[in-house]
Amino acid sequence: MRHLLLVVFCLSLSQIYAQKGDFLLTHHFPRHSNIDNSNFEITNDNYGRLCIANRSGVLKYDGEAWDFYQTPSAALSLTVDSTDVVYVGCIGTIGMIDFHERRIGYKPILPADSLDDLFLETHYFKGRVYFMGSKNLVIYDIASERASIHKGEFLNIYELDAEMFVNTADGETFVIHDSLTSISPLQTISYSSKRKGNPDLAVGFDNELYEYQNFEFSSLPQNKHIKELGFEIKEIQWVNDSLFVCSTFENGLLIFNKNDEEYLVVTDYQSGLPDNEVYTIHTDNSDGIWVATQFGITHIAPLFPAHSYSHFQGLNGNLTSVSNYDDDLWVTTSLGLFYFDRDTIFENKVYYEVQRKNQRTSSRTSQASSQKQESDDEKPLLKRLFGKKKLASGNDDQKQKKGLFGSIANIFDNDSNVEKVKGKLDKNAKYVRKVRQIPVDVNYTFKQVNGANGKFLSVLPYKDKLLGVSTSGIYEVTKKGAEIIIPESIRWFMVNSKDQLVISTSNLQLKVYKLNGDVWIEQISQSMDDIIVSMREGDDGKVWMAGSSAIYKTSTTDSTFTIEEELPLNNIFLDEVNILNKNDTLYFINSQGYYYYDSDANQVVENTKLEDQIGPAVHHLYDPVERGVWVFNGKVWHHLKEDGSIEKLEYLGLFPDLRAISIDQGTDKLWLITQNNELLKYDPTKQGGLETFNFFLKKVSNEKGEIDQSKKFTLAYDENFLSIELSKPDFLGLLNPEFQYKLEGLHEDWSEWTRSKSIDFSFLPEGSYNLRVRSRDAFGRVEEGEVLSFTVKPPYWQTPWFYAIQIIFFGGLVFFSTRLNQDSSKNRLLRGGLTLLTLVLIIEFLQSAIGSLFSFKSTPVVDFLLDASIAFMIFPLERLLRELMTKGKVKMKIKKKDISLIRKDSPTK
């Protein structure tokens, strides 16, 4: 019976912990010397950027750039309102991160010395911001910019059913309106989470998860897992309409499915989380989970169509291939051959068999000794802050029964056994010390095959055997060990329809082996004058081989090897040539293009139609299971199959530099090895589960500082330098967005696509402008953002009012000089000097005015020619002005012919 219960329990464990791989995790941390990983709270703004309350201040992060905003003291909590203003609660002060005085920075709401408190929680709700400290509750009305302060011993604050509530240290609960009203709650809540269209979720002080709907609390069925695991829940948050996540104090994260009570994913150190102690969690607008730990911030993508197998223990070396044969996962690396296995972990536990006067007693207490826990006053300050949402602790017996198998630890007990002796020994009893094994975990690991050391390239099924191919030879492989059967330096390999193992070696040898009984026979050994980079068998049984500059059509028997055809192929860069047998036609794919064998012409011909359909073969990989070819055209992966069909997988384009792709037998899933040495299981049926953020203009600035881009702004003539920073949150680092822009008023065409997120304009001429920017991601999806409108004012000397002043001034000089020249009694030297000065000033003004109309780069010679041309143009005007100022009139010469015409046309008297 004992063994039966053990088997049943282990089977139930395997159902709960059935290993489907870990969620994709990416790790982030600011690269600033003065900023550590003491992050107290995370949220995101309306653009999707993370906003982080850090010990040094407030951080904003878009997946690439970190923006830091200094606060007067450590930022402990924060929230974001509907206009994207960040409100932050600090030590002894509260404030906001907003635009003012030509920059974005911290602005206090109350004087820094007015409050002596730690503001551990900040919430935005219906136009108000609630700052909760241990002794003060500050309510800030955004519209009126007024703050009210309520005193008390506050424990936590939360939103439920469109109301704000606060708990106090003495056990009372208040609903918050203009004042605090005491109520008698159905449950005392520690933390809550809201999502539109879903019931509220909450964590009680009793460590229970609740659903709140129709004014009633109901316990969630997921509580049974929490009790079995013995975890203490800290926070709860919705992820999407079905998933929700709970953080624990020391055991990582628990991810549940609201519609499937058996669904549970534990994300902890074994899954790639840097630490099991969670500071805080946050779920963003794209259904991602953010976790703050001592070692930085981790992003978890539960809806991403790929799951990671890279964090399981035992896998070493750079991955070279992955295969699934007979429901076993095999991985080859640069250090050996590994298989995926599951073990049940047992714990040795001491118990005592008690005999007392032929009667047996039992005790159902737990054996684990409890350690004295430090009180809140004894804990370091930061540890108390990270555990700020405290849960009520149970009694000692409940604590002792916590643990993975506390609920079933007694299945081995009988009435004669006790696990712990309390008080003192009974002199009338005999104690016999014994040890038993109790299952405590189901552990998934990669195990290396004994004897399979060195660099392995792949595994290969051969009859009823599994062969491991390494650079040093061929091995027969089982989970118990590997035995080398063919010690050769392998470069390429294949098994043909005659059960012959054909290999090419690094020393330009071609060899053919065959298994006869238990004996491997070397049937053929042939020297080649070329490097063989791939092989494939055609429908006619001929083996086609690709070399550095030719395709070879060969045939084999049990004793002979014949090259029947040698056809030229452009492969001067020694690219791997993938051979595809598509619709009974052999195709050869390399980086130079697509080629096929034309049997009628008996030559290899380029197939431009296939390239037009798919695009260039930027990257291509052979599929060892379905014997197709994967082609990446720079944006999207295509799967070219033997039946002639072509499958397009857009989301797979997030991994442009894959080392290997293999189809999981019996499913539609794919095994991927990335350039970053990650092993992923990819589900193409879930490609629509990845949401993206829109791009936006993060910052607009010039020489004088930042500019408020929410309004149409105007730049002075000496502010004609403009810098724009773009942002498109991409926390997985896979979308690789590109940008292009067009400045209407200066440009007619769009710029080239660029990865740069900065746009700079220098020496903008006066005028009105509209800046249009659009982005393009890895899928080729184009998105255009809002238009940025602004105006550059002309310099004052080019304004109409300044021209009017100049005209009046020079007109006055001409008039005064003319009147002075008409009065002969005046000083002749003064008259001549003023006339000359007036002429020089007018000529210089006209020359400057005309020259300002031409703005182009030139040489000194061109400048001289331009000035001379302007001078010749102005010379007739200078002559007229001189006559006007010296004689008071302009002498005009009229030809005699014109005079006669005037007289002829004049009326007679």
From TrEMBL:
It comes from Ekhidna lutea. This is Y_Y_Y domain-containing protein. The chain crosses the membrane at residues 801-820, 832-855, 861-881. InterPro entries: Ig-like_fold, Reg_prop, WD40/YVTN_repeat-like_dom_sf, Y_Y_Y. The keyword Transmembrane applies. It comes from the Bacteria. Residues 357-379 are annotated as: Disordered. The keyword Membrane applies. Keywords: Membrane, Transmembrane, Transmembrane helix. Residues 736-792 form the Two component regulator three Y domain. Residues 360-372 have a biased composition (Low complexity).
